[in-house]
Amino acid sequence: MKLFLKKNGFKLNTPLAGLVYISLKIANNEISYSELINWLYRRLENGNLY
Questions:
Q1: Going residue by residue through the chain (50 aa), what tens digit of pLDDT does each one get?
Q2: CA–CA gap between residue 32 and residue 43 (Å, rounded)
Q3: What Cα–Cα distance (Å) separates residue 40 from each residue in 4, 15, 47, 50?
Q4: What pLDDT is recorded for position 48?
């Protein structure tokens, strides 16, 4: 996902602990698709800002 975002000019603004947390939520089926999308949108940044 991070590679896809980078290739498309975006950056995921979250610490490593946040990535681990969300990965575990996904692996344990504790987060719905819509919750994941909302989590992702809240942390997206345009990577082309100077």
A1: 888 988 888 988 999 999 999 999 999 999 999 999 999 999 998 866 54
A2: 17
A3: 13, 13, 15, 22
A4: 62
Q: Which range of residues forms the domain containing residue 8?
A: 2-46
Query: How many angstroms separate the CA atoms of 12 and 47, rounded?
Result: 9
DSSP conformation letters of 38-49:
HHHHHHEEETT-
CA distance 44 to 8: 12
Our count of domains for the chain comes to 1
Q: Rounded to an integer, what distance in angstroms lies between the CA atom of residue 9 and that of residue 17?
A: 23
